[in-house]
């Protein structure tokens, strides 16, 4: 790829005028930021316009990064500092290629480094640098030097606004590994050595004041897995009869039933089947009763299934 002057492209597409370009170049000299970033900071152009122009100019796909799944194993091969500095998010790989999204498709040195690490051809797409940075921040493991409930709060905060969230606590050999699922991303947050029992995990959520639904699993080797569905936001259910096919991070305002176990101060009761007249949260399989409200877990992996 040859280097393209983003300022000239913005002029060509009518997104800025000569005055805006001069202002952006001046701020670029003062801050050392990219020209596109300075123009966005000045309010002269939107980042989406820059991303769209780049994808059109060099005929590569434009990715809505917030909606893209994340391969935590693939990303773990690279330094997060390197990915952040270059605003690159590896998406997935095949036998021959690795797909990445970046807000600077002409950063050939960084692209070559990706290819060298993977030993594969790099397939480049463009996308929002802010969205890339936001995705990468979610991959940062919360510090474990403080209280474990602070690490859990940091993860929940990073998943704010998602329609579905699950935290997985795997207790093995006296160590607890923590993973999260939300926005279609399954992320590894490392270890929380102080959470060695189910009781201590529950104490953390009690300290946060967050009730939750959960499933408990154990294998023959004594490993224990606790899948936790936090109830952290409040939503009013729709008028009945209704069928609602989303699992929101919500705290029911009235009596609710679920097929999961329940912990914490919430008006939720465990029941294997829906109860007429009440909201029912199905975390394992979809229920089709039309005469009551049913909420299901959406786009959840493994044990939590959504069917259409």
Task: Reconstruct the topology from this structure.
Blueprint: H1 6-12, H2 18-31, H3 35-41, H4 47-57, E1 62-63, H5 72-75, H6 80-86, E2 88-93, E3 97-102, H7 108-118, E4 121-127, H8 129-138, H9 148-158, E5 165-172, E6 175-182, E7 185-191, H10 198-208, E8 212-218, E9 224-230, E10 256-258, E11 261-263, E12 268-270, E13 279-282, E14 294-296
Parallel strand pairs: 1-4, 3-4, 10-12, 10-13, 13-14
Antiparallel strand pairs: 2-3, 5-6, 5-9, 6-7, 8-9, 8-11
Helix pairs in contact: 2-3, 9-10
What does this structure look like?
There is one protein chain. The protein has 308 residues and is α/β, with parallel strands linked by helices. Among the domains are: 6-57; 62-135, Type II secretion system, protein E, N-terminal domain (GMP Synthetase, Chain A, domain 3, 2-Layer Sandwich), CATH 3.30.300; 153-230, no CATH class. The chain has ten helices and 14 strands. The chain has helices spanning 6-12, 18-31, 35-41, 47-57, 72-75, 80-86, 108-118, 129-138, 148-158, 198-208, and strands at 62-63, 88-93, 97-102, 121-127, 165-172, 175-182, 185-191, 212-218, 224-230, 256-258, 261-263, 268-270, 279-282, 294-296. Strands 7-6-5-9-8-11 form a six-stranded antiparallel sheet. It has a four-stranded mixed sheet with strand order 1-4-3-2.
